[in-house]
């Protein structure tokens, strides 16, 4: 499904649909359903995207003011929650469950991010989608981008930069270390 998403987002809808057709989504888990929802959204099929978000949502564990998804298959609890959060923020940003997912993810954040770099990236992507929908409550802040323990750059995120599709931070390959 990762490949289907990359294909759908980069102008190859036919190939993305072929992968979806071969996927046994009825036997999948919330993280896979979240990816399917993102693929369908990228393909412009919002009804199908919402179907998978609804199914995924039914597996959320809600405890007071927090909501998350348990570890299943190839991803841990935080990763599962980050993937589901991202799908909800992109497909159903008005869903009131998102507030509880945000509270859970912010409570799980450690000094340098979440449980893995992939989980951190997915969470930040989800937060961006969430903030794009909830523009009125935005302030601004600074983020230290740390690569291999070195502060690569400090960026300021505000209403203008958050919604600028051209606002990118490129990390030169020479700054990456093996391992």
Plain-language structure description:
With 179 residues, the protein is mainly alpha-helical. The protein is built from eight helices and four strands, in the order H-H-H-H-E-E-H-H-H-E-E-H. A hairpin with a 2-residue loop joins strand 3 (141-147) and strand 4 (150-157). Helix 3 (30-42) runs antiparallel to helix 4 (46-57) and helix 5 (77-91) runs antiparallel to helix 6 (97-108).
Poorly predicted runs are none
Q: Helix amount, in percent?
A: 40-55%
Structural class estimated from helices and strands: mainly alpha
Binned strand content? 5-15%
Order of helices and strands: HHHHEEHHHEEH
Quick gist of this model?
This protein has 179 residues and is mainly α. The protein has helices spanning 2-9, 13-22, 30-42, 46-57, 77-91, 97-108, 117-133, 159-162; strands at 61-63, 66-68, 141-147, 150-157. The strands form two sheets. The protein has a two-stranded antiparallel sheet. A two-stranded antiparallel ribbon has the order 3-4.
Descriptive tags:
179 residues; mainly alpha; two-stranded antiparallel sheet
Task: Please render the helix and strand layout as text.
Blueprint: H1 2-9, H2 13-22, H3 30-42, H4 46-57, E1 61-63, E2 66-68, H5 77-91, H6 97-108, H7 117-133, E3 141-147, E4 150-157, H8 159-162
Antiparallel strand pairs: 1-2, 3-4
Helix pairs in contact: 1-2, 1-3, 3-4, 3-5, 4-5, 5-6, 5-7
């Amino acid at each position: 499904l990762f490949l289907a998403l990359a294909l759908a987002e980069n102008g190859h809808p036919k190939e993305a649909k072929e992968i979806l057709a071969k996927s046994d989504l009825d036997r999948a888990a919330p993280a896979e359903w979240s990816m399917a929802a993102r693929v369908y959204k990228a393909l412009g099929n919002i009804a199908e995207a919402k179907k998978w978000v609804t199914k995924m949502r039914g597996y959320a564990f809600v405890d007071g003011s927090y909501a998350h998804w348990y570890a299943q298959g190839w991803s841990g609890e935080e990763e599962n929650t980050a993937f589901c959060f991202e799908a909800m923020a992109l497909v159903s940003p008005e869903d009131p469950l998102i507030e509880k997912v945000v509270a859970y993810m912010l409570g799980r954040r450690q000094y340098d991010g979440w449980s893995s770099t992939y989980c951190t990236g997915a969470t930040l992507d989800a937060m961006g989608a969430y903030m794009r929908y909830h523009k009125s409550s935005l302030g601004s802040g600074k983020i230290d981008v740390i690569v291999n323990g070195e502060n690569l750059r400090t960026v300021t995120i505000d209403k203008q930069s958050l919604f600028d599709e051209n606002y990118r931070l490129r990390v030169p390959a020479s700054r990456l270390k093996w391992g």
